[in-house]
Amino acid sequence: MKRLKDLAEIVGGNIIGDGDIMIVGVGSAKEGASYGTITFAETEEIHKEAEKTEAAAVIVPKTITKSSKTLVQVDNPRLAFARIAREFMPKPLVTGEIHPTSVIHPTAVIGEDVSIHPYAVIDEGVRIGPRTVIGPGVYVGKGVKIGADCEIHANVVIEYETRIGDRVIIHGGTVLGSDGYGFVTTKEGHYKIPQLGNVIIEDDVEIGANVTIDRGAIGSTIIGRGTKIDNLVHLAHNVETGPECLIVAQSGIAGSTKLGKRVTMAGQSGVFGHLKVGDYVTLAARGVITSNVESGSFLSGFPAIDHKQNYKIKAASRRVPELLKQIKTMEKRLAELEKKLEDK
Amino acid sequence: MKRLKDLAEIVGGNIIGDGDIMIVGVGSAKEGASYGTITFAETEEIHKEAEKTEAAAVIVPKTITKSSKTLVQVDNPRLAFARIAREFMPKPLVTGEIHPTSVIHPTAVIGEDVSIHPYAVIDEGVRIGPRTVIGPGVYVGKGVKIGADCEIHANVVIEYETRIGDRVIIHGGTVLGSDGYGFVTTKEGHYKIPQLGNVIIEDDVEIGANVTIDRGAIGSTIIGRGTKIDNLVHLAHNVETGPECLIVAQSGIAGSTKLGKRVTMAGQSGVFGHLKVGDYVTLAARGVITSNVESGSFLSGFPAIDHKQNYKIKAASRRVPELLKQIKTMEKRLAELEKKLEDK
Amino acid sequence: MKRLKDLAEIVGGNIIGDGDIMIVGVGSAKEGASYGTITFAETEEIHKEAEKTEAAAVIVPKTITKSSKTLVQVDNPRLAFARIAREFMPKPLVTGEIHPTSVIHPTAVIGEDVSIHPYAVIDEGVRIGPRTVIGPGVYVGKGVKIGADCEIHANVVIEYETRIGDRVIIHGGTVLGSDGYGFVTTKEGHYKIPQLGNVIIEDDVEIGANVTIDRGAIGSTIIGRGTKIDNLVHLAHNVETGPECLIVAQSGIAGSTKLGKRVTMAGQSGVFGHLKVGDYVTLAARGVITSNVESGSFLSGFPAIDHKQNYKIKAASRRVPELLKQIKTMEKRLAELEKKLEDK
C-alpha cells in the first residue's frame, strides 16, 4: 500500500482531492478497477467509466478537473500509470542470495546483490553485474558477460561469449547464441559452416519468451539499445537492430539484415536477408520486406509496399470475381457492335 | 497385454468373434498394424485394409458384421480406439515419488501421490493437487496453484500466480505467465508497463511444446476448459478463450481478444487484438481475423472473410494475367470500332 | 593458432606464397577480416575486398593467381573455408566428464568420453554413444537411444523412446517427442488420442533452437539423414523427411506429410497434412503447399504454385486498381458506341 501523494510525486502529478488516501494497487477503468486501486483515463469518456468502478483515484490529463474520484493530473496519463504501476510490481525472482544448488565455475565473477536461483549453471569466465537476477535452470555459457540490474527468467540458455548490457530483461525459455543456419551444399550433403561470432544485447533491451537469437557467422548479431522483442521471434545470424526497435510476436528477420532505429515490426511479420531497413519504418502484421526500405516508410503486404498502395490493391482484388463477369458481358457487347458494323 | 473383452467393456462394444484373445497394443489399418494389435476402421474400405494387416481385432461401426478379424462394434470407432489406446499408453513420468534433488519451498503444499522429477523447482506458496506429475527441470513460481491429475513435462516454466486446473497437460519448454508486451513510447524510449495480472488455465486443457502464454496486464489471460493448444502458439496478455477451442501450431492471438466456445484456428493463423470472436468459428490455415466475427462463421484469408468468398477471390485473381491481355485486345477492338464510326 | 600449410592440407589446397605463416582464426572479406586471419573470396571482386583487410591469407578459386596476400587455391572456396573454420571452432561443451550433479538412472549405458553437464537428467534404459555431449539441464527420457558424436545443447527435452543417430546437433530449448496433436471431437469435448509412436532423428541431422518435433500417433516421425532444421520449426506427428532437406526458421509441416530428398522450405513456409512432396522441391518463403508436389518443382505462394506463375499473378494483381478504372472508362465508351449505332 502506498500513499497517493507519494505516488503523485513520482510522476510530478497535481492532486485534486485527498492526497493522504492509501492506494492498494492498480486497476483498469474498463474492466472494473477494484476498491482502493488507482487507474488512468486519457479521455473524459474513459474517465466516466473509471468513475463507475471502485477505484480510489484516477490519473488524468490536465483538461479533466472534476470527478467523484480523487484525481492526479499529468501530461501523459498512460506513462504516469506505467510508472506508478511499477511501485506495485512484485519482484518474485529477487532474493539477493545465491542458491547453494547453483553450479558456478570458480573463475566466474558475480557482482553484489546478485540473485541466483536453484539449478542455474554459470560456466567458466562469466561476469555478472550487480543486482542482476539469474532464474532457475538458466545456463550462462563460457565467457558470457551480463551487466547490472538484469532479469533472466527460468530455463533461458545463454551460449558462450554472449554479451548482455544493463537492465536487460529476458523471459523464460529464450535461447541466445545458438548457431546461425549456415551450410555449403555439395553432392555429399550440406557441410556445416562453423558459426564463430556471438550475440550482443545492448542496455535496456527486453526479450520475450522462447525467442531465438543466433550468434553471428563471423562478427556479432546485435540487438540495439532499448529494443523490445516479443515472444517466439527469430533473429538470424548477423542481424543488427538499431535502438528502440519493436519486434512483435512470431516475427522473423533473416541473416545479415540491418534495421535502423525505432523500426516497428508488427506480429507474424518478416524481413528477407542481407537488407537495409531505414529508421522509423513500420511494417504491418504479416508483412514481408523483400528489398531495402527507406526511412519513414509504412509498409504492408508481401512483398511489403506502401501501406496505402497495398490497401488499394487488396480492396481492388476483392472485386475481381465480379470484374470477370463484367468483362464477359462487355466482350459480348463488343462482339455485337462489331457484327452490326460489318452488316452495315 | 489386455484381454479383448475387457477392452470392449470400456467402450460398450459388441464383440463378433473370440473375446478372450489378448491384445498387445494398438495399430494403424493403413500402415500395417502389427501382430496382436487392435485397430479401427470407420468404413468398409478401411476395414478391408485392416484385414490385410496382422492386427488381431478391428473396431468398426455397427454396419460392419463380417470379417476375417475379430470385430468390436461401436457407435464411434475413432473415439473407441482413442479410449482403448489409452489403456496401452505408457506413463513414463508417473513415479509417485518426490525426487530428492527437487527444490521445494517449505511453504509449498504438495498433494498425495504427486510425482516430482529431478531438478524441479517449486517456489513459495505453491499448491499442487493429488497425482499431478511435475517433470524434470520444471519451474513452478511463487503462489502458483496446480490442480489434480496434471502432467507438466520437462523444462516448463510456470511464472508466479499462474492458476492451473485439473487434468491439464503441458508439453516441454512451454512458458506460462511471461510478461505481456506492453510499453508507453516517449521520446526517451519505450517505457515498460508492468504486467500485473496472471494466467488461468481451466480444467482439461492441453498445451503443446514451446508455447508462450503471457500474463494479463491487469486481470487474467484465460484459457477455457477443454481447450487444446498445439506447439509454438503465442497467446498475448488478456486473451480469453471459451471452452473447447482448438488452436493449431504456430498460430497467434494478439492482446485482449476474446474467443467464444469451440473456436478452431488452423495452423499458422492469427487474430488481431481487442476483438470478439463468436462461438463455433473456424479460421482456415494462415487466415488472419482483423475484425469482430459472428458465431458460426467459417473464414479464410487475410483479412479473413467468408471462406467461399475468399476462395472465389483467390481463384479469380489467378486469372488476372490473362485478363490483362484480354483487356488490351478489347481496347484495340474498341478503338477500331470508334474509328470506323467516326469515318462513317 | 595453426600453420597455413597444415590448413591447406586439410582442404587439398595449393599455396601461393609462404605456407609457414601462422593463422589465428577466420575472418570475413567484406567485413574487415582482422590481423592474421584467413578468409575466402569466390570472385576477383571479393578478392580485392579481401586484399584491403588485415587478413594473412585468402582461399580462392584456381583462376586467381596474383595477390598481396598469401593464397590457397581450391576448387570450392566456400566449402574449404567452412572446413578450415572448423579448426578454429571452440567446443565449449566438450569436457569429457560426467558432472556429479547429473542424475543418471542406474540402467542407463553411457559411452566413452561422453560429456554430461550439470543438472542433465538421464532416465531409465537410455543409451548414449561415445563422445556425445549432453548439455546442462537436458532431459533424456526413458528408453531414448542417442548415437556417437552428438551435441545436445542446454535445456533440450528428449521424450521417451526417441531415437537419435550419430553426429546429430540439437540446439537449446528444442523438444523432441511431445505428443502429436490428435483428438476425437464429441459433444462432450475433444477426447485425446494417445500418441503412441516416437521420433527418429537420423545421422548428421542438425536441429535449431526451440524447435518442436512431435512423436507419431502410431509409428514414427522421421527426420532423414543430413537434414538441417532451423529455429522455431514445427514438425507434426508422423511427418517424414527424406535425406538432406533444408527447413528454414519458423516453418511448419502438418501431420503425416512426407518430403522427398533435398526438399528446401524457405522461412515461415508451410505444408498441409497427409501430402507427398517429391525430391528436390523448393518452396519459397511464406509459401504453403496444399496438394501433392512433383519432384523438381520450384513453388511459391498460397496455395503454392509454380514460382514463375505465382510471380506473374502477383505482378498482375498490383495492376488491378488501375484496371478497374480502365474498365470503367471502356464501359462508357462501349455505351456511347451502342448509342451511336442505335441512333443511326
What is the number of E strands of chain A?
38
Q: CATH class of the domain at 156-303 in chain A, please?
A: Mainly Beta
**Largest interface, and how many residues on either side?**
A-B, 66 and 62 residues
Strand % of chain A is 25-35%
Helix content of chain A: 10-25%
Query: What structural class do the secondary elements of chain A suggest?
Result: alpha/beta
Quickly count the helices of chain A. Answer: 5
CATH superfamily of the domain at 156-303 in chain A: Hexapeptide repeat proteins
Please give the radius of gyration of chain A in angstroms. Answer: 27 Å
Mean model confidence by pLDDT of chain A = 96
Q: Low-confidence stretches of chain A at least 5 residues in length (pLDDT < 50)?
A: none
Shape of chain A: flat
- Widest β-sheet, arrangement of strands of chain A: 10-13-16-19-24-27-29-32-35-37-38
Oligomer: homotrimer
EC number (chains A, B, C): 2.3.1.191
Catalytic activity (chains A, B, C): a UDP-3-O-[(3R)-3-hydroxyacyl]-alpha-D-glucosamine + a (3R)-hydroxyacyl-[ACP] = a UDP-2-N,3-O-bis[(3R)-3-hydroxyacyl]-alpha-D-glucosamine + holo-[ACP] + H(+)
GO biological process, one term (chains A, B, C): lipid A biosynthetic process
Pathway (chains A, B, C): Bacterial outer membrane biogenesis; LPS lipid A biosynthesis
Briefly summarize what is shown.
Chain A has 344 residues and is an alpha/beta fold. Among the domains of chain A are: 2-86, MurE/MurF, N-terminal domain (Udp-n-acetylmuramoylalanyl-d-glutamate--2,6- Diaminopimelate Ligase, Chain: A, domain 1); 156-303, 3 Solenoid (UDP N-Acetylglucosamine Acyltransferase, domain 1). The first copy, chain A, is 18% helix and 28% strand.
